[in-house]
Amino acid sequence: MTRMTCLFVALVFIPFLTSAHSFAINQPVPSVGVVEKGELNYQNEKFSYQNWSSAQLNGKVRVILHVAGRISARNMNNPLITTLREANLPREYYQTTTIVNVDDAVIGTGMFVRGRVKDSKQANPWSQFVIDSNGDACRAWELTPKSSAIVVLDAQGKVRFVKDGALNRQEIQQVVSLLHTLLHQEESHHDTGTLPVIKTVKHEIRD
Prior knowledge:
With 207 residues, the protein is an alpha/beta fold. The chain has one domain: Glutaredoxin (3-Layer(aba) Sandwich), CATH 3.40.30. The chain has helices at 3-18, 71-76, 78-87, 110-123, 136-141, 169-190, and strands spanning 33-43, 46-53, 61-68, 94-101, 128-132, 148-153, 159-164. It has a seven-stranded mixed beta sheet with strand order 2-1-5-4-3-6-7. A hairpin with a 2-residue loop joins strand 1 (33-43) and strand 2. Keywords: Signal. This is YtfJ family protein. It comes from Serratia sp. (strain ATCC 39006). Residues 1-24 form the signal peptide. Pfam families: YtfJ_HI0045.
């Protein structure tokens, strides 16, 4: 194979390598349901599970964090998650949905991973946590194993941003700006006052 042919093949396949997921901008997420474990609830100091479906994602501006059940994957997008947590966004308009793929955990650590998710739910009861024991969302959305993905949805449940992998500084700023826009749109619809300014964290952000 000649050098020019190799270059042509590389250029043809680069878009597929960088956009392997099945999300489409301005479209709903591909339909998926999680029935093995599913959404984690915490009420009256007790945990329980219920079936979860992507049909539940509309109604609020939302950031979906899909993450493999591994410490390395969990740390990939910590700068963005820390930024959102510290922003104290209005719960009537915004929610973070974290989907943990326990099927993609280090062998023997599944119980530990579920325990960490329970700790997070207990500390952030207004956030949504989904334990995906069979990796159904990962397969339906064609996400990279052992990784982390960020998806921003508007209140109609349509994808406005997606990145399969760690966000760099510019992408974090892009997400923050997009959330400002979407939340102010919701504010104008409901006319309830001024929304908080989201300040990005300055540590642990990799370019």
